[in-house]
Amino acid sequence: MRIPALFLLLGLLAPVLCLADGSAPASPSTIHLIVSAPSDPAWPERIARHVEETLSVPVIVTVQTGAPSATAAFQCCQSLATEPEPRQLRVCLVFGVTPPSRVEIACEIKPEQQCATVWADGLKPGAQTASPQDAETWLMRVDKQVTYATGRLLGLQPCGFLLCVMHASATLEDVDLKAPNLCPPSREALPSPPAIME
Ligand SMILES: [Zn+2]
Asked: 128: domain CATH number?
C-alpha cells in the first residue's frame, strides 16, 4: 500500500491547505451517530468504529429501525432539545431517502446546529447494488462521508489534499479516490486526544 508514503510526501508540501482556519478547534465532545433505517444492520457499528479510530473521538450510536422516513430525516438535526448532557455533536445518517437537490455529495453540514446529515442513498452505486462488491463500495463511501461530516463538526476545515478524507469531494469519483483517513496536517488540526477523551 503506497498511500501512507504519498500522504507523508504530499502532506509536507501542502500543510497550509489542511489546517484549521486559525480558530481553536471545537470544544471536546462526543459524537452521537443516529442511523435511520440502515440497509445492513452491521453497518452502523462499523461506521462508528471507523469514525472513532480516524478522528480519535468517542462515538455513540442510536439506530432507528422501521421504514425510511423523509420527515424523520429532515427533523433529525432539529430535535436537539432531547440531546442528553453533556451536549453532543450529532451526525444523522439516513438510508432510503433521496437527498434534497441542494445537498452536494450527500453531506449537509450545519455547524450552527452542531449537526450534520449524510444521505446514504446519494452515495449508492447505480446498477448492481446487489453484488457484494458494490455493497462494499457503498459502505466505503458512507464511511468516508460520515467521517468528513464529523470532522467538520469537530472544527476541521475542508482539505486541499485530494487523498485526504477531509477533502470536500465534488463527485462520487472524488469520494472513491480519497483515503478513509486523515492526512498528517489534518490530523494535527484535530482537538488533542486527551481533551477529547475526557
Ligand atoms: Zn487533510
From this structure: 3.40.390.10
The model's pLDDT over 149-177, given as tens digits with 9 standing for 90+, comes to 999 999 999 999 999 999 999 999 999 99
- 69 CA → ligand 1 middle, Å: 34
Distance in Å, CA 179 to ligand 1 centroid: 10
The DSSP code sequence of 31-92 is EEEEEES-SSTTHHHHHHHHHHHHHT--EEEEEE-SS--HHHHHHGGG-GGGPPSSPEEEEE
Report the number of distinct structural domains present in the chain: 1
From 70-79, 132-141, 150-159, the region with the lowest mean pLDDT: 70-79
Distance 12 CA to ligand 1 centre (A): 11
Q: Cell for 58?
A: 468517542
2 within a domain of the structure (yes/no): no
* Domain coverage including residue 59: 26-196
Please give the distance, rounded to the nearest whole angstrom, from the Cα atom of residue 42 to the centre of ligand 1. 28
Separation CA 152–CA 129 (nearest Å): 29
pTM: 0.81
